[in-house]
Amino acid sequence: MPKAAQTVIREGAYYTIAAANGRVLEVADFNTENGAQVRLWSYEGQPWQQWTFEEAADGQYRIRNRFTGKVMDLAMGGVSNGTWVHQWQATTGASQRWQLVPASGGKVKLKNALADKVIDLAGMRMDNGAQAQIWQDVLGENQLWRLDPVPDKLLNKDTPAPAPRAAAPKRTRTQTGSKGAAKKSGGKGGRRSSR
User: Fold this and answer.
1) What b/e string do you get for 41-80 counting C-beta neighbours within 10 Å, with b at 16 or more?
2) Sign of the torsion angle spanned by Cα atoms 102, 93, 63, 39
3) What 3-state class would DSSP assign to 185?
4) 146-149 and 132-135: which strand pairing?
5) What's 2-159's CATH class?
6) What is the pLDDT of residues 115-136, one digit of tens each?
7) Phi, psi of 160, rounded to the nearest 5 degrees
8) Among 96, 84, 74, 76, CA closest to 133
9) Which of 1, 20, 64, 172 sits at 20 to 30 Å (Cα–Cα) from 104?
């Protein structure tokens, strides 16, 4: 197993973790908080979709997100089928350690050291937003992952994530009616002046 991991993983390199349809695991909504979900999404070249593998024990890795700096973990330290994969600050816990199990076609399974189960997609979904979870190994397509190195040109680009975060409150205020009220009064004013 360590030999297979060495052929795929380079120290300090970043990878995408891609499902069969090319969508990748990401931290949902580029959330930097502990407990943010890990889900599947179309690849957009963003750092919250990029991961590095840090050796944690012999043949085991912590999978750290490039944007948030947090690692893949099991929600509540759960070990049962269906336990969600989320991010958390790094600890020494086994729930944050993963083995790369070679599979066919150059793909891997990501097996959790604590649960002895592999990363899987809830409901066997492969669309945007599908939640990553653990499940016993059932040889399913939704348990196979391709690790692709992130090109250097994407590692050096500026990250636009803070802009959407700052814009989100404005959209919320618009929905509460502050702009709608302005449009309404503007409309009435327009009708009055035309009379």
Assistant:
1) bebeebbbbbbbbeebeebbbbbbbbbbebbbbbbeebee
2) positive
3) helix
4) unpaired
5) mainly beta
6) 999 999 999 999 999 999 999 9
7) -85, 10
8) 84
9) 64
